[in-house]
Amino acid sequence: MLGCGKTPDKVIGTMEKVRAADVDVMTFGQYMKPSKWHMPVSENVTPEAFQKHRSLGMKRTSDE
Question: Which domain of life is it from (predicted)?
Answer without folding.
Answer: Eukaryota
